[in-house]
Amino acid sequence: MKSSSQGGLVYSTETGRMCPACRQPLAQCACKAAAKAAPAGDGAVRVSRQTKGRGGKSVTVVKGLALDAIALALLGKQLRTQCGSGGTVKDGVIEVQGDHVDAILAALVKLGHRAKQAGG
Predict the structure, then answer these.
(1) Which of 13, 56, 94, 107 is deepest in the core (most CB within 10 A)?
(2) Is residue 4 over pLDDT 50?
(3) What are the φ and ψ backbone dihedral angles of 89, each rounded to 5 degrees?
(4) What is the pTM of this model?
(5) Residue 108 burial (CB < 10 Å; 0-12/13-18/19+)?
(6) Among the residues of the chain, which ranges form H helices?
(7) Do the beta carbons of residue 29 and residue 23 sit within 8 Å?
């Protein structure tokens, strides 16, 4: 059994690994639940078109959505279906293949998000 520099229990044979911040078993940790509850976002959804690092192919990128991972994946699926193209959701960013900035802006405004075009 190891002890941290703060003198707290790091591992217990009874409950397994312990969270160093709240000193609870990882299954009951309150720190990570609080961090996941408030996704980052300033309220403005930014839609832009990118081509860098993609072999010249354009991708429409949606950033700034204050949604959890499940809702973000569902919205990504809905946007890809509406545009009729592929894409992905990575690190809180929705990527839709192709130049669909206008269609995605219209769809997001219709769904009640404050969306604006970023970039040129």
Answers:
(1) 94
(2) no
(3) -125, 115
(4) 0.65
(5) buried
(6) 31-37, 69-83, 101-110
(7) no
- Token look-up 């509850």 returns 37
Counting other chains too, the contacts that 38-42 makes at CB distance below 8 Å and 24 or more residues apart are 39/65, 39/66, 39/67, 39/68, 39/92, 40/66, 40/92, 41/65, 41/66
Q: Are 87 and 77 in contact (CB under 8 A)?
A: no
The Cα 53–Cα 45 span in angstroms is 23
Is the model's pLDDT at 104 over the cut of 70? yes
Please tell me the predicted confidence (pLDDT) of residue 110.
Answer: 93
51: amino acid identity, one letter? T
Model confidence pLDDT, tens digit, residues 35-82 = 555 455 567 899 999 998 888 899 999 998 888 888 899 999 999 999
